[in-house]
Structure formats: C-alpha cells, structure tokens
Design brief:
single chain, two-stranded parallel ribbon, 10 strands, elongated
C-alpha cells in the first residue's frame, strides 16, 4: 500500500480494501497528484446523523429531531452538479474514501416550535469548524459511498477531475443523485 503523507496514521487503510486494485491505485495516485500540485481541499467537512424521536410529555412539543455532527476529513471535489442550487457532487477525501458531498442545509442552533424540538449536537471541535463557514468557504455534509458506487464514480470522473483541479478549473460538471440521509 502506498503511504501518502499522514493518511496511514493509526494503520487505517488508505482506500477501501474491497475496491478492485485499479481503483485503489488510481485513488492513491490522485491523492499524491493533488498534494504535489498543491490543490487545496475543501476543509469544512462534517457528517450529519439525523434521529427522530417521539417525546412522551403532557404539554409542549412531542416530536424531537436531533442532528449530530461529526468531523470528516477534508476532501477534493471530483464533480459538481450544475442543476442543484446548493453545491453538491462527489469527491475523494484525504483518507481515499469516495464521498457524496452537499453544502450544509442544516441549522447549527437548537430551535423549537409548537410541534417540534430541533436539537443540534457536535463532536469535539466540530462546532468551531462549522462556524468558520462563509459564503466563499462553505461547510459541507459528506457521506461515504458504497463500494460499487465509489468504483463507478472513480471510473467515470477521477482522471478528468484530477486534470481539471490541477489546472485550477475546479470539479467536473456532472449530475449527482440526491443524498439519502439515514435516520438513526
């Protein structure tokens, strides 16, 4: 396995072991190429888990939604969806995982109304990172792709995206399927 920077700290695999060898090698070369060309990754990245609970209380809101934010590694965007009003697409994070990313649509503060309570929880360091987001440097919600989908994205977009990013043109325009947010 190619060791790139600090990606293998803690003996974590650089890319998923169930990918075909060609996909693993392509991602390792992509990561090294991005570092050598000093292409800056998007660094405000998190994962959001959403839980919906029913509260058994005599008065007040009975429904509670909890958004739990965890840090994820910075990533390089491979694609961007030109049809989506928010910034969405596929990317490769610093550990070599293929992800789907979307500009953060979730509020970062607790809220309540007559029917619902929205609670927000952050992993250590995540709240400060998310608060750094600006219009020009937005926060992104990332979720890893299943292996079969990751290999498909790598096959279709990795080489074109690497060239485009290294030349300063940004990610490749391609349609993205809507993220499926899992409720846990």
């Amino acid at each position: 396995m190619l060791t790139v920077g600090g990606a293998n700290w803690g003996n974590a695999p650089l890319v998923h072991h169930e990918w075909p060898p060609a996909a693993r090698i392509a991602v390792e070369v992509f990561l090294e190429f991005m570092r050598q060309n000093r292409v800056r990754p998007y660094d405000i990245a998190a994962r959001c888990r959403i839980r919906s609970l029913t509260r058994h209380v005599p008065v007040g809101p009975r429904r509670e939604i909890v958004h739990s934010f965890d840090l994820t590694p910075p990533f390089w965007p491979l694609t961007i969806d030109p049809d989506d009003a928010r910034v969405t697409g596929y990317g490769i994070d610093r550990t070599g995982a293929c992800i789907r990313y979307a500009q953060n649509p979730y509020p970062l503060a607790n809220r309540a109304d007559e029917e619902t309570v929205l609670r927000v929880q952050f992993a250590p360091g995540c709240h400060n990172l998310m608060r750094r987001a600006t219009r020009t440097n937005p926060a992104f919600i990332c979720e890893p792709l299943p292996s079969w989908h990751a290999v498909q994205i790598i096959t279709e977009h990795l080489i074109d995206a690497a060239i485009s990013l290294s030349e300063g043109r940004g990610p490749v325009a391609a349609r993205t399927t809507a993220p499926s947010h899992t409720t846990r």
